[in-house]
Amino acid sequence: QVQVVESGGGLVQAGGSLNLSCVVSGSTISIGWYRQVPGKERELIALILNNGRANYPESMKERFTISRANANTVYLRAKTVKPEDTGVYYCNAKTSWTSHWGQGTQVTVSS
Protein backbone atom coordinates (compact mmCIF):
# COMPACT_ATOMS: atom_id res chain seq x y z
CA GLN A 1 0.00 0.00 0.00
CA VAL A 2 1.40 3.36 -1.02
CA GLN A 3 1.34 6.02 1.69
CA VAL A 4 1.78 9.73 1.09
CA VAL A 5 2.74 12.30 3.72
CA GLU A 6 3.06 16.03 3.13
CA SER A 7 4.83 18.50 5.37
CA GLY A 8 5.97 22.09 5.39
CA GLY A 9 2.76 24.08 5.33
CA GLY A 10 1.89 26.89 7.67
CA LEU A 11 1.81 30.67 7.66
CA VAL A 12 3.87 32.46 5.02
CA GLN A 13 4.26 36.19 4.41
CA ALA A 14 3.19 37.47 1.01
CA GLY A 15 6.21 37.90 -1.22
CA GLY A 16 8.07 35.17 0.59
CA SER A 17 8.78 31.61 -0.45
CA LEU A 18 7.13 28.30 0.30
CA ASN A 19 8.78 24.92 0.67
CA LEU A 20 6.78 21.71 0.91
CA SER A 21 7.91 18.10 1.16
CA CYS A 22 6.20 14.88 0.16
CA VAL A 23 7.41 11.49 1.30
CA VAL A 24 5.97 8.43 -0.42
CA SER A 25 6.32 4.81 0.59
CA GLY A 26 6.28 2.22 -2.14
CA SER A 27 6.98 2.28 -5.84
CA THR A 28 5.35 4.92 -8.03
CA ILE A 29 5.50 6.19 -11.59
CA SER A 30 4.79 9.83 -10.82
CA ILE A 31 4.33 12.20 -7.92
CA GLY A 32 2.41 15.44 -8.19
CA TRP A 33 1.44 18.46 -6.15
CA TYR A 34 -2.08 19.84 -6.21
CA ARG A 35 -3.86 22.54 -4.28
CA GLN A 36 -7.39 23.41 -3.38
CA VAL A 37 -8.09 27.04 -2.65
CA PRO A 38 -11.37 28.11 -1.03
CA GLY A 39 -14.27 28.03 -3.44
CA LYS A 40 -12.37 26.29 -6.23
CA GLU A 41 -11.71 22.77 -7.41
CA ARG A 42 -8.47 20.99 -6.72
CA GLU A 43 -5.89 21.92 -9.35
CA LEU A 44 -2.57 20.55 -10.52
CA ILE A 45 0.52 22.57 -9.67
CA ALA A 46 3.27 20.27 -10.92
CA LEU A 47 4.04 16.65 -11.67
CA ILE A 48 7.36 14.82 -11.75
CA LEU A 49 7.98 11.47 -13.38
CA ASN A 50 10.40 8.78 -12.28
CA ASN A 51 12.84 9.91 -14.95
CA GLY A 52 12.93 13.34 -13.37
CA ARG A 53 10.92 15.09 -16.05
CA ALA A 54 8.65 17.75 -14.61
CA ASN A 55 5.41 19.02 -16.07
CA TYR A 56 3.54 22.19 -15.14
CA PRO A 57 0.31 23.81 -16.23
CA GLU A 58 1.15 27.08 -17.94
CA SER A 59 -0.27 29.12 -15.07
CA MET A 60 2.09 27.50 -12.54
CA LYS A 61 5.38 27.53 -14.46
CA GLU A 62 6.60 30.91 -13.37
CA ARG A 63 6.47 30.58 -9.59
CA PHE A 64 6.50 26.86 -8.74
CA THR A 65 9.28 24.29 -8.96
CA ILE A 66 9.00 20.56 -8.31
CA SER A 67 12.06 18.44 -7.67
CA ARG A 68 13.08 15.02 -6.40
CA ALA A 69 15.50 14.28 -3.59
CA ASN A 70 15.22 10.58 -4.33
CA ALA A 71 12.64 8.06 -5.53
CA ASN A 72 10.43 8.65 -2.49
CA THR A 73 10.84 12.33 -1.63
CA VAL A 74 9.58 15.21 -3.73
CA TYR A 75 9.71 18.91 -3.00
CA LEU A 76 7.57 21.82 -4.10
CA ARG A 77 9.00 25.30 -3.93
CA ALA A 78 7.10 28.48 -4.63
CA LYS A 79 8.53 31.96 -4.89
CA THR A 80 6.83 35.28 -4.36
CA VAL A 81 3.73 33.77 -2.78
CA LYS A 82 0.48 35.72 -2.81
CA PRO A 83 -2.60 35.66 -0.56
CA GLU A 84 -4.44 33.83 -3.35
CA ASP A 85 -2.00 30.94 -2.91
CA THR A 86 -3.72 30.19 0.38
CA GLY A 87 -5.23 26.73 0.42
CA VAL A 88 -4.64 23.08 1.15
CA TYR A 89 -1.74 21.56 -0.75
CA TYR A 90 -1.90 17.86 -1.55
CA CYS A 91 0.64 15.38 -2.78
CA ASN A 92 -0.49 12.59 -5.07
CA ALA A 93 1.41 9.45 -5.96
CA LYS A 94 0.45 7.26 -8.88
CA THR A 95 1.32 3.67 -9.63
CA SER A 96 0.43 1.94 -12.88
CA TRP A 97 -3.02 1.15 -11.50
CA THR A 98 -3.73 3.34 -8.46
CA SER A 99 -3.71 6.91 -7.23
CA HIS A 100 -2.91 7.86 -3.64
CA TRP A 101 -3.46 11.16 -1.87
CA GLY A 102 -1.93 12.56 1.23
CA GLN A 103 -3.95 14.30 3.91
CA GLY A 104 -2.91 17.70 2.68
CA THR A 105 -1.08 20.54 4.35
CA GLN A 106 -2.61 23.95 4.95
CA VAL A 107 -0.77 26.97 3.57
CA THR A 108 -1.89 30.44 4.60
CA VAL A 109 -0.31 33.46 2.96
CA SER A 110 -0.72 36.65 4.94
CA SER A 111 -0.71 40.05 3.29
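the 2nd protein, sequnce then structure:
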Amino acid sequence: QVQLVESGGGLVQPGGSLRLSCAVSGRMLSTNVMGWYRQAPGKERELVAAIRSISTNYADSVKGRFTISRDNAKNTVYLQMNSLKPEDTAVYYCNRVTTAWPWGQGTQVTVSS
Protein backbone atom coordinates (compact mmCIF):
# COMPACT_ATOMS: atom_id res chain seq x y z
CA GLN A 1 0.00 0.00 0.00
CA VAL A 2 1.49 3.31 -1.11
CA GLN A 3 1.24 6.18 1.32
CA LEU A 4 1.96 9.83 0.55
CA VAL A 5 2.49 12.26 3.41
CA GLU A 6 2.84 15.94 2.57
CA SER A 7 4.17 18.50 5.04
CA GLY A 8 5.69 21.96 5.27
CA GLY A 9 2.71 24.17 4.49
CA GLY A 10 1.63 27.15 6.51
CA LEU A 11 0.75 30.83 6.49
CA VAL A 12 3.24 33.10 4.78
CA GLN A 13 3.23 36.71 3.63
CA PRO A 14 3.39 37.60 -0.05
CA GLY A 15 6.97 37.37 -1.26
CA GLY A 16 7.82 34.74 1.31
CA SER A 17 9.07 31.18 0.90
CA LEU A 18 8.09 27.69 1.96
CA ARG A 19 9.56 24.26 1.38
CA LEU A 20 7.14 21.38 1.05
CA SER A 21 8.09 17.74 1.57
CA CYS A 22 6.37 14.56 0.41
CA ALA A 23 7.41 11.30 2.02
CA VAL A 24 6.53 8.23 -0.02
CA SER A 25 6.24 4.79 1.55
CA GLY A 26 5.36 1.47 -0.01
CA ARG A 27 7.08 2.11 -3.36
CA MET A 28 10.53 3.10 -4.49
CA LEU A 29 10.54 6.64 -5.78
CA SER A 30 13.41 6.32 -8.20
CA THR A 31 11.55 4.86 -11.19
CA ASN A 32 8.55 7.15 -11.07
CA VAL A 33 7.76 10.56 -12.52
CA MET A 34 6.55 12.58 -9.54
CA GLY A 35 4.58 15.79 -9.41
CA TRP A 36 3.29 18.44 -7.09
CA TYR A 37 -0.34 19.41 -7.54
CA ARG A 38 -2.47 22.07 -5.92
CA GLN A 39 -6.17 22.66 -5.47
CA ALA A 40 -7.56 26.06 -4.59
CA PRO A 41 -11.08 26.49 -3.22
CA GLY A 42 -13.65 26.06 -5.97
CA LYS A 43 -11.04 25.03 -8.54
CA GLU A 44 -9.85 21.74 -9.99
CA ARG A 45 -6.61 20.16 -8.92
CA GLU A 46 -3.74 21.24 -11.19
CA LEU A 47 -0.23 19.96 -11.76
CA VAL A 48 2.31 22.68 -11.00
CA ALA A 49 5.64 20.83 -11.14
CA ALA A 50 6.97 17.45 -12.23
CA ILE A 51 10.30 15.68 -12.05
CA ARG A 52 11.61 12.70 -14.03
CA SER A 53 15.06 11.65 -12.89
CA ILE A 54 16.69 15.12 -13.02
CA SER A 55 14.55 16.78 -15.69
CA THR A 56 11.79 19.08 -14.49
CA ASN A 57 8.71 20.83 -15.86
CA TYR A 58 6.63 23.64 -14.41
CA ALA A 59 3.31 25.28 -14.99
CA ASP A 60 3.69 28.78 -16.40
CA SER A 61 2.14 30.23 -13.26
CA VAL A 62 5.02 29.01 -11.05
CA LYS A 63 7.95 28.92 -13.47
CA GLY A 64 10.96 30.73 -12.07
CA ARG A 65 9.54 30.73 -8.53
CA PHE A 66 9.10 27.05 -7.64
CA THR A 67 11.70 24.29 -7.74
CA ILE A 68 10.91 20.58 -7.54
CA SER A 69 13.54 18.11 -6.41
CA ARG A 70 13.78 14.56 -5.16
CA ASP A 71 15.92 12.50 -2.83
CA ASN A 72 15.55 8.90 -3.91
CA ALA A 73 17.55 7.65 -0.93
CA LYS A 74 15.00 9.24 1.40
CA ASN A 75 12.06 8.44 -0.89
CA THR A 76 11.03 12.09 -0.62
CA VAL A 77 10.01 14.79 -3.09
CA TYR A 78 10.38 18.49 -2.30
CA LEU A 79 8.90 21.72 -3.59
CA GLN A 80 10.77 24.93 -2.84
CA MET A 81 8.39 27.85 -3.27
CA ASN A 82 9.78 31.37 -3.44
CA SER A 83 8.21 34.76 -4.16
CA LEU A 84 4.85 33.42 -3.08
CA LYS A 85 1.71 35.20 -4.23
CA PRO A 86 -1.83 35.19 -2.81
CA GLU A 87 -2.93 33.18 -5.85
CA ASP A 88 -0.61 30.35 -4.73
CA THR A 89 -2.98 29.72 -1.82
CA ALA A 90 -4.17 26.12 -2.09
CA VAL A 91 -3.84 22.64 -0.67
CA TYR A 92 -0.70 21.08 -2.15
CA TYR A 93 -0.40 17.38 -2.91
CA CYS A 94 2.25 15.15 -4.41
CA ASN A 95 1.64 12.06 -6.51
CA ARG A 96 2.90 10.01 -9.36
CA VAL A 97 2.24 11.82 -12.63
CA THR A 98 1.27 8.74 -14.63
CA THR A 99 -1.24 6.51 -12.84
CA ALA A 100 -1.93 8.22 -9.54
CA TRP A 101 -1.51 6.45 -6.24
CA PRO A 102 -4.05 7.05 -3.46
CA TRP A 103 -3.93 10.74 -2.62
CA GLY A 104 -2.54 11.96 0.67
CA GLN A 105 -4.15 14.61 2.83
CA GLY A 106 -2.10 17.40 1.35
CA THR A 107 -0.65 20.42 3.08
CA GLN A 108 -2.34 23.83 3.22
CA VAL A 109 -0.43 26.84 1.90
CA THR A 110 -1.93 30.23 2.62
CA VAL A 111 -0.31 33.38 1.24
CA SER A 112 -1.75 36.46 2.89
CA SER A 113 -0.70 39.65 4.56
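The radius of gyration is 13 Å. The chain has a mean pLDDT of 95.
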